[in-house]
Design brief:
With 283 residues, the chain is α+β, with helices and mostly antiparallel strands. It contains seven helices and 13 strands.
Length: 283
């Protein structure tokens, strides 16, 4: 038997966390007040009451404190304004301390017990004096958190090379692992400027179609393999995964011709060809 939960998100495109709805009647888009590891926070219901398996839960499951009131929503607006002011103060203090760091964003917990300053830097930064300075200004708990360039892009947002809003800042809740191999599988240019996002890392969207490419390639021969075609045997010089096309250099004419994958069949390397695997010499 599953456990009744509601899914709550605290940021746009942020992770979804489960909470016990308790006796509250909640639907998607409802604001709620919940207790988190950071303190009391304002969140938005993105998944109404539903059951999940106990294995999917991260104990302990905390209850929703209350459905957000008009006063809570007003406080949220006040907090946002304070965050904007805290950001300006943070910029001034960083400049005053001459620290090699870039302030990205500032968040204040809903209960106003802590302000978090997010920043990027090339290495470790000794910001102890900065924290003391900020604490003397705001007189609440101060936390400085160093983040990576992908997290920076997610917080700031922007437009990708496709012309659409960045996936990470609009809907992608978790970063996926992306490798240069995925670009090779999809026959994309390996020019870093063409396969990197505004964060400078490989674009997340390289992952989206990668599984389809891997499945399609299983039906195609490897480059360098020998095949039989309607025009005789030849060696594969290139493939087109999308069209399921294969380019073959014909053995007899030394010309390259394109075929559909269904028109060719695999063949062992012809004897005497230079690309044939080495055989053990017999004495």
């Amino acid at each position: 038997m599953g456990i009744l939960v509601v899914g709550v998100r605290f940021k746009k495109a942020g992770k979804v966390y489960y909470f016990d709805p308790d006796e509250h009647q909640l639907t998607p888009n409802d604001g709620v007040i919940v207790e988190t590891a950071r303190g009391v926070e304002y969140g938005e219901v993105v998944a109404g009451p539903h059951e999940v398996e106990e294995e999917e839960m991260v104990a302990p499951l905390k209850k929703v404190i209350r459905k957000a009131t008009d006063a809570d929503k007003q406080q949220l607006l006040v907090n946002k304004e304070k965050e904007r002011k805290a950001y300006q103060v943070g910029l001034e203090k960083i400049a005053a301390h001459k620290l090699p760091m870039k302030l990205v964003n500032v968040e204040q917990t809903f209960d106003r017990n802590k302000i978090i300053f997010y920043f990027t830097a090339d290495g470790r930064i000794d910001f102890r004096e900065l924290v003391k300075d900020l604490a003397s200004v705001f007189r609440i708990r101060i936390e400085l958190r160093q983040i990576g360039v992908r997290d920076e892009a997610k917080m700031i947002g922007g437009l990708g090379c496709c012309g659409r809003e960045l996936c990470c800042s609009s809907w992608l809740s978790d970063f996926v692992s992306v490798s240069i191999r995925m670009a090779k599988e999809q026959n994309l240019s390996l020019n870093p400027a063409k396969i990197s996002g505004i964060c400078g890392r490989l674009m997340c969207c390289l992952k989206y179609e990668n599984e389809c490419y891997e499945h399609a390639r299983e039906e195609l021969p490897e480059v360098g393999a020998w095949v039989l075609t309607p025009d005789g045997e030849g060696k594969v010089t290139g493939i087109n995964v999308i069209k399921k096309g294969v380019s073959v250099e014909l053995k007899e004419t030394k010309t390259i011709k394109d075929y559909h994958a269904g028109e060719i069949t695999p063949k062992n390397n012809p004897a005497g060809d230079s690309s044939e695997p080495n055989k053990e010499c017999s004495s």
